[in-house]
Amino acid sequence: MLDKLGLRNDWDFILHLPLRYEDETRITKVSDCREGVAAQIEANIIHNEIVLKPRRQLVVQAKDGDELIYLRFLNFYGSQQKQLAPGGRVRCFGEVRQGFFGAEMVHPRVKIIVEGAAVDDSLTPVYPSTAGFAQSALRKLITRSLSRIRIDDVLPVEMRERLRLSEFAKSVRYLHQPPPDASQQALSDRTHPAWRRIKFDELLAQQIAMRRARRAVQALHAPALGNSMAEDSLSASFLKALPFALTGAQARVWTEISSDMSRSQPMQRLLQGDVGCGKTVVAALAAARAIQHGYQAAFMAPTEILAEQHYRKLSTLFSQLGVKVAWLTGSLKAKEKREAVALIASGEAQLAIGTHALFQTAVQFANLGLAIIDEQHRFGVNQRLALRSKAAPDSEAHQLMMSATPIPRTLSMSYFADLDVSIIDELPPGRTPITTRLVPNARRGELLDRVEIAVSKGAQAYWVCPLIEESETLQLATAVETQESLQLSLPNLKVGLVHGRMKSEQKNAVMSAFLANEINLLVATTVIEIGVDVPNASLMVIEHSERMGLAQLHQLRGRVGRGSAQSSCVLLYEAPLGQVARERLKIISETTDGFEIARQDLRIRGPGEYLGARQSGAPMLRFADIEADAALLELARDACVELETNAPEIAEAHLQRWLGSRENYLKA
Ligand code: ADP
Ligand code: MG
Predict the structure, then answer these.
(1) Whose CA is nearest to atom 19 of ligand 1?
(2) Which regions in the chain score pLDDT beneath 50?
């Protein structure tokens, strides 16, 4: 059980800090107890009995002065009735509430005492634990660790004072054993200086870890794919073949990528930018650069639909330039798969586009120089590493990761600090902003007219349903039923359907028909969430939008507004809305700025969504909250650079203290 809690050595115990505290340092009169606030009372037992209704329970009557209080125990040992015999005096910790017969405490923690016995001299910590592991045992182990090792401060005094941080040993002791006058508020909202110190140390450990992970990559070797800006270079020809010019932001990030690739260390770059900003073209330029130097490039996407779309676009462009492109996904027939694998292994295919299938063990690249990973957060770290390891034995492939989910600054400073980040912060010209409206489900009927009008003007629309199978618990509309009923209500339109359980040929056939405007209204599950690019689609209806996350809604919405027509997105919701859902929908309807949305999402839901597999294993941050503690994060980042430069041995000691047995995530 200790292992499950991550508690293996003394430092693990010392850094296992309380979630909250209970105050057994004072005694509250029953008449002063407030509803909903746990307190310690003291009383004399006057009677006890076992009653059978409404449930078998031990009921003890006790008196605090003139006040009568009932103590109820639903699970009890026979010996407890003897222990709580009339005439004894008890201290009980719990919440007093007004029951049917008067004041009562249900399942209090009880101690038999003699009158005048001393109260605790510090607040009682309550630790994160697992079922079956008693708080009292945990407290004992932690107290033992606190007393048996020397808790020194790794930070130089000068730095500690400059950053106005309290001493480390004092801080941990304070948090494990706060004095009776400690502010419960400052402890529970973690604003107390002791918490500030702990959070700083935790953030510092994270910074050191990320910096080391980054250095480890820099020690590796990769082919230098330099920038020969010759007119006849492949990337230059690729640029010329495009029907548009790069936006300023695209040109800027391409320069950054290009300069990374010209070094002999592997590029580890995250290209982020809002949906539709044009990341694919930039990635294709990078592929062209690798190919021009005689290396292969792999382009991996998380879904078949997305990979297929990349393949269709890029193979057209690249084949004009004489580049051989291979296509590899799990759904290919065995023979096609064998052929693709052979093309990749012989080096005949210069660019390989596909899904997870690209990093299966059977796939061997002749000389992989660049791995492009679209929607990186959808892939696990292991999958990404597997693709990288496909490079030649003595050399690594450059890695370009892309994400349409903009990563807030605090996240790129912390969890993503081992990556270089390029941002496309500009949309291609000629896009019109998307208007977003919230419509209660009760008014769903009106939307049908809207769809019909849009289609009569030549536009196309998406209708997004969240689930494909009947689920009684959630009672969400199924995509299949929706398609049938929409087709019935809109007999003049062609209503198509695409969902995650379809075979990929079927899926592709539907998507091609939609792209060719043979389907007017496409009912879809969230499979269309990423990457789908049909510029003529300018209306999107999202059902049960209240059940979706902000990032997901933003991605979905990004499927419209890709052409020059005015686009709109209608968010259907089931009233009444809960607090969080209301907040989410308000944000999404008020802004289309992906970074702002991501920041709000991070605030509401925490970083889980963004981290994907990065959060596997021990969570890196247990105490600090990168949004709320952004200022502290910056201090920690600067302190990390300072320590690594002037006193790397201190950085090392600090990292060991915090990671100890958790080292694994360093490899992520
Ligand atoms: P995302 O960043 O979401 O992956 P895409 O790469 O799919 O975006 O690009 C979205 C659309 O914008 C595509 O149709 C693409 O051809 C187009 N596009 C990309 N760059 C430009 C540009 N500089 N000018 C005009 N259109 C562009
Ligand atoms: Mg994309």
Answers:
(1) 278
(2) 468-470, 472-476, 530, 613-619, 664-668
pTM, rounded to two decimals: 0.72
Q: How far apart are CA 645 and CA 637, in angstroms?
A: 12
Q: Which ligand is nearest to the CA of 533?
A: 1
Please give the DSSP secondary-structure letter assigned to residue 86. Answer: T
Ligand 1 centroid to residue 281 C-alpha, Å: 7
CA separation for the pair 325, 306 (Å, rounded):
16
Please tell me the predicted confidence (pLDDT) of residue 305: 76
Residue 279 CA, ligand 1 centroid: distance in Å? 7
What are the residues whose beta carbons fall under 8 Å from the beta carbon of 121, sequence distance 6 or more?
A: 25, 179, 180
277 within 8 A of 249, measured Cβ to Cβ: yes
Report CA-CA distances (Å) from 458 to 269, 491, 519, 564, 567.
Answer: 41, 16, 11, 13, 13
Query: Is the shortest distance between the CB of 401 and ligand 1 below 6 Å?
Result: no
Distance between Cα 387 and ligand 1 center (Å)? 26
Cis peptide before 54 (omega within 30 of 0): yes
Please give the distance of CA 487 from its chain centroid, rounded to a whole number. 38
pLDDT digits (tens, 9 = 90+) for 493-505: 999 998 777 777 8
Please state, in angstroms and as integers, the Cα–Cα distance from residue 263 to each residue in 217, 270, 475, following that order: 13, 17, 55
Give nearest CA residue, ligand 1 atom 13.
Answer: 278
Q: Which ligand is nearest to the CA of 378?
A: 2
* Residues 524, 498 contacting (CB under 8 angstroms): yes
What element of type H or E holds 126? strand 124-126
Q: Which residue's CA is minimally distant from atom 14 of ligand 1? A: 533
| Distance, C-alpha 15 to centroid of its chain | 24
CA of 274 to the centre of ligand 1 (A): 11
Tokens of 299: 């382009």
Question: Shortest CA distance to 97 belongs to which of 41, 19, 161?
Answer: 41
Angle between helices 304-320 and 279-292 (to 10 degrees): 50
**Of 244, 425, 434, which is best to mutate to test ligand 1, by the most ligand atoms within 8 angstroms of its C-beta?**
244
* 585 Cβ neighbours under 8 A, 6+ residues apart: 438, 545, 546, 571, 573, 577
Ligand 2 centre distance from Cα of residue 309 (Å): 10
Is the minimum distance from the CB of 652 to ligand 1 under 6 angstroms? no
pLDDT at 194: 97
Pocket probe mutation, ligand 1, options 373, 376, 533, max atoms within 8 Å of Cβ:
533
pLDDT value for 218 = 85
Chain centre distance of CA 139: 32
Looking at residue 474, its pLDDT comes to 44
